[in-house]
Write a structure and sequence with these properties.
Structural Genomics Hypothetical 15.5 Kd Protein In mrcA-pckA Intergenic Region, Chain A; 224 residues; Alpha-Beta Plaits; 3 domains; 8-stranded mixed beta sheet; 18% helix
C-alpha cells in the first residue's frame, strides 16, 4: 500500500492531507523521514507520525441525521454541541471525523468515518458525487430562477456546475417554495448562496441524500 493511502487508512487524515504531511517531512518510516507519498509500505515497516506508530484501523462508518443547532466538527471553541456529541459513549472512542459539513442551522445526512480514502472521494469535486438538498426558500420561485440554478451561477468569481432542480411545492399563503436540488460539488454555504443569488433566500435546508446511499455498501455501518 502506498504511504499516503496507508496514513489515510490509519485515520491520520484524508488522502490529500496525508500527502501534504508526507511532502512536508512529517512522516517517518523505520525512523527515517520519507517525503514520497507513493512509497510502498512493506509488511515490516514501522510508520510513525508525531512519534506515534500508525496502524491500519478497523474502518467504521456512521450515518447521522444532523439536527439544527449542532456544528459539523469534532471540537468547537465556542462550546457548542458537536456532531460527535450525537454518538453513543462507546462510539466516541473511535477516531472519526465528518465527511464534508452542514451549516449550524442546516439538517440532514452527514457521514462520520475514519476512512480517509472514502472521505477524499466523497468530497473532491472531480469525483462528482451527488448531494441532494430539500430547500424551503422565501418567495414564489420563478422559472428564470430555476433555470439559473440548473445551468450555473457566478459566485465570487466561480461558476457553479449544472444542477438538478425540481420545484416540489409553491405555497402562496406562506409565500415560500419547496425546492429539491442536487449538486456535485460542495463549496462553503453553496446552496444557500445559490438561492440568495437568484433572489430567493433559504429559510430552511435539509440534506436528504449523500451520494447514492453509498454508505449501505459497508459492513461496519451504524446509524444515528
Amino acid at each position: 500500500m502506498k504511504l499516503g493511502k496507508y496514513l489515510a487508512h490509519g485515520g491520520i487524515a484524508s488522502r490529500r492531507k496525508s500527502k501534504e504531511l508526507i511532502l512536508n517531512g512529517k512522516v517517518l518510516v523505520n525512523g527515517e523521514v520519507v517525503t514520497e507519498p507513493s512509497y510502498l509500505v512493506k509488511k515490516d515497516d514501522v510508520v510513525t507520525y508525531k512519534d506515534e506508530v500508525v496502524e491500519k484501523e478497523e474502518l467504521v462508518y456512521y450515518l447521522v441525521n444532523k439536527p439544527r443547532g449542532v456544528v459539523s466538527t469534532v471540537k468547537d471553541e465556542k462550546g457548542r454541541k458537536t456532531i460527535l456529541d450525537l454518538l453513543n459513549d462507546e462510539d466516541k472512542d473511535e477516531r472519526v471525523y465528518p465527511v464534508g459539513r452542514l451549516d449550524y442551522d442546516s439538517t440532514g445526512v452527514l457521514i462520520l468515518t475514519n476512512d480517509g480514502e472514502l472521505a477524499y472521494i466523497l468530497t473532491r469535486p472531480e469525483y462528482e458525487v451527488p448531494k441532494t438538498y430539500l430547500v424551503t426558500a422565501k418567495g414564489i420561485i420563478t422559472r428564470e430562477a430555476e433555470r439559473k440554478l440548473r445551468t450555473g451561477i457566478e459566485l465570487d468569481g466561480y461558476r457553479t456546475r449544472e444542477a438538478k432542480v425540481s420545484v416540489k411545492e409553491k405555497n402562496n399563503q406562506k409565500k415560500t417554495s419547496l425546492v429539491e436540488i442536487t449538486i456535485t460539488e460542495g463549496k462553503n454555504h453553496q446552496v444557500r448562496e445559490m438561492f440568495k443569488a437568484v433572489g430567493f433566500p433559504v429559510k430552511s435546508l435539509t440534506r436528504t441524500h449523500f451520494s447514492y446511499l453509498v454508505i449501505f455498501t459497508f459492513s461496519n455501518c451504524y446509524f444515528y
